[in-house]
Amino acid sequence: MLTRLTPAFKMHFKSTAKSVIVFYIVMLAMFLLDLIVSLVLSDGQKSEVSGTEVISAIFFWVLGITCFKMNLKMAFANCVSRKTEFISTMLSSAVYAFIMVFLNAGIAFLFSTISTTDFVFDQMYANYAFANGFIKFLTWFLYEFLSLLSLFAAGYFIGALYYRMNKGLKITVSVGVPAILLIGMPIAAGIFGPDSLFVKAIISCMDFLTRTIANPYGAILLSLCVLAICGVFTFLLIRKAPIKEQ
Amino acid sequence: MSTIKLDNVTKCFGQTKALDGVSVVFEENKIYGLLGRNGAGKSTLLNVISNRLFPTSGEVTIDGIRVFENDYALSKIFCMSDKNLYPDTMKVKEIFEITKLYYPEFDMNYAQKLSHDFGLNINKKIKGLSTGYNSIYKIILALSSGAPIVFFDEPVLGLDANHRELFYKALIDKYSEKPATYVISTHLIEEASDIIERVVILKEGKLILDEDTETVLAGGYAVSGPATAVDEFCKGKELLGQDVLGGLKTAYIKGKIRAEELPENLELSKPDLQKLFIQLTN
Question: How large is the ipTM?
Answer without folding.
Answer: 0.86
